[in-house]
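[SOLVED] Need 3D model of a two-part complex

Original post:
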Amino acid sequence: MLQTPIADAAQICLRVRGLTVAYAEEPALQGISLDIPRHQVTAFIGPSGCGKTTLLRSFNRMNELIEDARTEGVIELEGCNIFQAGVDPAQLRRQVGMVFQRPNPFPKSIYDNVAYGLRIQSSSSRAANLDQEVESALRRAALWDEVADRLDAPALTLSGGQQQRLVIARAIAVKPAVLLLDEPASALDPISTLKIEQLIHQLKSNYTIIIVTHNMQQAARVSDFTAFLNAGRLVEYGPAEAVFTNPKERQTEDYITGRRG
Amino acid sequence: MRASLNIATLPRRRRWIDFLTRAVMALGAAAVAAVIVLMLAFLVQVAAPLFLPAAIAPSTELSLPAGHAKLLRVHPSGDAALRVDADGRISIFALSDGAQLQSRWLDATVVAAKPVFLANDLHAVLDSAQQLWLLQTVQRGGARRPSPELNILFGGRPIPVGAVIDYDLAQQADGTLKLALLSPTALQVRRLPAPFTTVAPSGGAQSHTLEDGAERVLFGPGGRWLFTLGGTGATVWSIAPRVGLQPFANTPLPGALPLHSATPLLGRQSLLIAGDGGVAQWSLSRAGGRPHLALVRTFPLAAAPRTMVAERQRKGFVVLDETHNLHLGHATSGRILAHRKGTVGMDAALALSPQADLLLALEPSGKLHRIPLLNAHPEVSWATLFSKVQYESYEEPAHIWQSAAAHTDFEPKFSLAPLLFGTLKAAFYAMLFAAPVAVMGAIYTACFMAPGMRRWVKPTIEMMAALPTVVLGFLAGLWLAPLIEANLAATAALFLLVPGGMLLFAGLWRRLGENFRKRCEGWQGLLAVAPMVGLAAAAIHLAPTIESAWFGGDLKAWLFAVHGIDYEQRNALVVGLAMGVAVIPLIFAIAEDAIHAVPPHLADASLALGATRWQTVTRVILLTASPGIFSALMIGLGRAVGETMIVLMATGNTPITDFSIFQGMRTLAANIAVELPESEVGGTHYRLLYLTALLLFAMTFAFNTAGDLVRERLRMRFGSL
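Solution:
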């Protein structure tokens, strides 16, 4: 069942067709097909174990790192199938950045964390204005003002909320087209959460953002489009307002009103 | 009804368990700390006396009959002394109270008296009638009440010697005696039959004219050499049965002529010759082809030396100078160890007890000073332990460890440098082999190996640690060492081809089909085994061909001929391999754990940023695991330094300082294992071995502590664990 709330095909950034993922013959996603619009925030919601994180990790092929994971179907990034032979996962991941549930800065300095993605691309031209790139990434992640005077301090001395913004800065420093956020605020306090949400709002103009969240209010606040998954299947997908205020499916309504989940 | 809540006290049982657990833990920790401190205290307690300063204690005096003593010598039993006076009286007196045990008179006055070299209880007395009397002090009366008895050899008859300036006697291994006589114009060596036996002397008298004259004659080492002193200097003579008496080069003795006093040191490799500014040690040297006396070291003294006496079992000596001061010195350590100001008259005769713990000084007035010497370990100083020392009959100062020899009059050489060097060398070669293999193995196993294979590989390698090192040492010494010696070229080829082949295999792997690669992901290691075995077989097979094509058929001979590299069968290569095998499981296990414990979310973060697997490993995983890898290496190093059985069995135990991979070594640990069972408890050697144990303890402690400190620092930097 294809669900696409996007009329204009030119606005499609990611096109998913018939995506099925199984872990050791245990299906996690079954026949997902949807389109993700460019420079919008798309949220995946659903009960635990519904496959939303698996779907998210399919976009940068991180599922492949899991032993026994098997993927079928097609995901096109700007018209190009990311599963076809000849696609280098490392190159793909430079286009599709990811932020994880728990802040995971490297045990390096703040500066080195942000510069990491740039350095591994090992192009000397980029290394020349590394300082600028780092500053710009930290500014865009709304962290610059807090860390400008201690860029050489270990990243692990930052607070949890700061670490998460640092990780976002690290991800956007390599200038990806798509940013995947896997419950980015679930381990944070309300004030840090608010900052992250504001940040998502600002980043939207430059990046296609896909966010997985457990938090209905958060999904309603930040997303333009919302997809509800249940038991490995896409149940409903549409503009966030529509999904939250006037769900078409019974399952969706039950979930967002808290009757099940 | 409301149940009352008890939050004030824990249930009794849990309190008890808490208390017991805490007590047992505290006790265990305290016991561990106490054992370490006790061990340390014990080692220090045994080793510390080595560094106690020597001292000359205050004397106690006895009154004996007056007379000018020409010879004073303590009997080997240590409780009586022989005294030969100038007026011809020979007596034995007890050291405890001065009581005269025996006495007899010669018919003439005594000109000189001296002990016979290499004999314990023979003395030669020259009287004014130009006759030589041979005296023997014999122990009579059993062990309970020993009483030395005086005997005059050759049936109580003297040997006429003619007009002589000086003489010396040496007893040979067969019991016969050599008599050297110095007259103003000639040097003569005579042979006398063995006392009490019928062994006839071999060869007759030999003589040689003296052009420059001399004042003293002394037998040299083993009685095979003669030294004449005086005239224009010192001359070394050889006494070969066929060639006869043969003089070698004459060495000037600056500052020592005219001759005041000269005393041979134990073994007679060296003479102590008194000069104006102190005492000089001259040794028989063969440097430059011609045997001669060479100046080894000087012991400067404020006043001119008057009388000297050498120890009988060590290279120590006592000097009495013109200002009545006593000086206690030791030749090898090159030091004057202790002084004592003016207690003894200048003309006193000196004697040392056999153990050199008592000095006797007999003044002509009959006053006998008994002076205890506190000087248990004169050989040991920081300089002799760690710096180069000029030993007797060595061409130049050297670091040498030689604690025992076939004969008792040798010079012990106690330099710890060769042992320290050997320890570090063995550890270095072991780590050279083990560290790359273990760490790279750990990286591969933790980061790249398929989990199914890792489940087998890791426990298998860890099991290797259970292999007893004595088995490894045994295999290394008796199987591997001869094998490598016989197949040196093949060994070298293996070292080159196997790592090279591994790289080649990795290169080829990338060209294989992607599907196949994906299917075998993580199992490459297993697939590589067969090509590697094939390559190894090829290397072994080809080695003889290569050897004959490029190295003239024998790599060892080629190495020696072209590069001067000598090959020892039990060498650092064998030890490095065997000890490497012992250390690899240790390093591997700790390093693998550390790498595997790096949180997967860090690797995910790196991969999600577009890093390749290799970039992720080198830039994130190894960095995060570096404290663990470092401590693995340090623990491995500590183990390699302290390892005993393998080095004991596979090094050859030669205490040399040669860093060549084809030479052996002796390590501190192996040295303790080899020598402790045969060292005299409480002796210098015994205490020195404890000192080396302390040193070993300190070394492993230092490595572990350094490892821990660095690991803590790294952990603070990279500590996300």
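Edit: The longest helix of chain A spans residues 160-173.
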